[in-house]
Specification:
alpha/beta; Nucleotidyltransferase, domain 5; five-stranded mixed beta sheet; two-stranded antiparallel sheet; 7 strands; elongated
Length: 245
C-alpha cells in the first residue's frame, strides 16, 4: 500500500495536471493498476465489492478499456476511440489475443453506460471567466400600457453578476449587437460563453450533437476571441443560473 503522501500526489497529477493513467504510472514508477486505483478513487471507506459479470477472455483488460473510454470523455468526439481502435491498441500495446467481436461488444456496452451517466449527471460548476447568455422576455410599462420586450442577458455563475441589453428583435444582427454591448458593459470579453440553441447562432444540430453555426456568429467569436459551448437540446438547465422568463 502506498504512503498517504504518494496517494495525494497521484490525485494531484490526475485532477490538477490532468495526466492519463499511463503517464502517472511512469512518473511514479508504480504499477498501472496501482496508479488507476488511487487516481480515480473518491470513496475511501471500506469497499464492499459487488458481483460483476465475468469476462473470461477480456477480464484482464477491462480496467484498461474502461480507462481509455473514461479519458475519452475529456476529448473532442473526433479524437475518441472507436471500437476497432480499442481492439487494435489492446493487440499492439497489451498483447491481447482474443477476438475482435469480444472487444467491440464490450466497448459498445461501456460507451452506452458512460453516455447515460453523462446525460444524467451534469456538472454545473463554472470557473471564473465563463459567462452564460440567453434571451429573456419582460413586461414593462410604456405610455401607460404594458408591453413585452426582448432582452439579451449575460450572467457569470462564478460571481453571480448579471447584465442585460434590450433588443428590437431576435435576428442575428440584433443578437450580435446586443452581445457586443454586453461585453462593453462588462468591460471585457469572457473566456468562454455558454448558449442555448439560439436560432440566431445555430443553423443546424448534427446527428452527433455538433452545432453548425452561422458564419456571422463564427466570425464574431473569432474576432473577439472567446470559446463557445451550446447546451444539449432541451437541456437549458445545463447553463445553470440563467434562462428566459
Amino acid at each position: 500500500m502506498l504512503a498517504m503522501a504518494q496517494q495525494d500526489y497521484i490525485k494531484h497529477l490526475r485532477e490538477q495536471e490532468d495526466l492519463p493513467i499511463n503517464n502517472i504510472a511512469k512518473q511514479m514508477n508504480i504499477n498501472w493498476r496501482t496508479a488507476k486505483k488511487y487516481a480515480d478513487k473518491d470513496d475511501w471507506n471500506i469497499e464492499i465489492k459487488e458481483r460483476k459479470k465475468r469476462y473470461p477472455i477480456l477480464g484482464d483488460y477491462i480496467e484498461i478499456i474502461d480507462t481509455w473510454l473514461e479519458e475519452d470523455l475529456r476529448r473532442h468526439k473526433k479524437q475518441r476511440h472507436t471500437q476497432i481502435r480499442v481492439y487494435q491498441r489492446l493487440v499492439d500495446e497489451c498483447g491481447f489475443t482474443g477476438g475482435q467481436r469480444t472487444v467491440t461488444a464490450y466497448v459498445s456496452k461501456k460507451k452506452k453506460e458512460l453516455t447515460k451517466a453523462t446525460d444524467t449527471f451534469i456538472d454545473l460548476q463554472h470557473p471564473g471567466g465563463e459567462a452564460q447568455v440567453d434571451y429573456g422576455t419582460a413586461e414593462v410599462s410604456h405610455k401607460h400600457k404594458l408591453i413585452q420586450i426582448k432582452y439579451l442577458a449575460m450572467s457569470f455563475p462564478y460571481s453571480n453578476a448579471a447584465y442585460i441589453w434590450i433588443l428590437p428583435s431576435e435576428n442575428i444582427e440584433s443578437f450580435l449587437t446586443g452581445l457586443q454591448q454586453l461585453m462593453q458593459l462588462v468591460g471585457g470579453v469572457p473566456r468562454k460563453i455558454w448558449f442555448d440553441n439560439l436560432s440566431a447562432a445555430v443553423v443546424k444540430i448534427e446527428n452527433d450533437r455538433e452545432r453548425k453555426t452561422t458564419e456571422k456568429f463564427k466570425q464574431f467569436a473569432l474576432h473577439y476571441g472567446f470559446q463557445y459551448e451550446f447546451c444539449n437540446v432541451g437541456k437549458g438547465n445545463e447553463k445553470g443560473n440563467i434562462g428566459a422568463t
